[in-house]
């Protein structure tokens, strides 16, 4: 496996093989590895990018303390089948003040976009840059960040970018907690409390499938989460995917708009750590 930290990434021009890109912010875990393995099974060359992108963090967010460990990342990426790790510095990615950004409207106003203004502009801008640098045929994203999948897919469609988005399922710990680089922030006690997120999503899904209205299911999920002393809900919503539109609160899910995929999406603070998770409601 090759580690590349400067540009150009392909000195001899684009290789004549299918390239798969897995964009990450590093501190790789089994969730990332599952994306890399998927790319390995579908592409000739697998590139994993590792870049903690300052543009997608708000001023009071965790950019500085975001966990970083390039040696460990190289090991995880290589074991999962990566050929190249592209790990540029901030100066390589942003050698001058950036005057061009990419914005996807509407889809970015809701859910995480509502509490993290500017976050998705940072994401779509850096993903555009990475796609231009790596020139992959396929790009892999986890459904853990379902809104990111919806936003990036829409950008790629709207701008006719020649790349296919491959959404990959959420990888969970055996007890249900979705893997995240930010789980490292949790104390042992917070780690236990964090379980309430996936448990509530499961409960909410079961209630909806039994005929509860979205309004009732979400109320019960909220009550469940609020029982944890250190949990504070940012949002819990039932939305259509990939439109991310709220559903009719009083209609059972099997009467919602035909063909729409429905997701319960949640962001919950556990102590000082903001965790996101979601579950699809398959009617
Ligand atoms: P991050 O390093 O957190 O920016 O994540 C990089 C990519 O890995 C994103 O597409 C995430 O959605 C994906 N990812 C992170 N955690 C998981 C997980 N538990 N299961 C599946 N994909 C994940």
Report on this structure.
- The protein is an alpha/beta fold.
- The chain contains 8 helices and 9 strands.
- Helix 7 (188-209) packs antiparallel against helix 8 (214-226).
- The longest helix has 22 residues, at 188-209.
- It binds adenosine monophosphate (AMP).
- The site of adenosine monophosphate (AMP) has 17 residues, from helix 1 and strand 5.
Tell me briefly what this model is.
With 283 residues, this protein is of the alpha/beta class. Helix content is 34%, strand content 20%. Helix 6 (146-158) links the parallel strand 5 (138-142) and strand 6 (164-168).
Please give a handful of descriptors for the protein shown.
283 residues; alpha/beta; six-stranded parallel sheet; three-stranded antiparallel sheet; 8 helices; globular; binds adenosine monophosphate
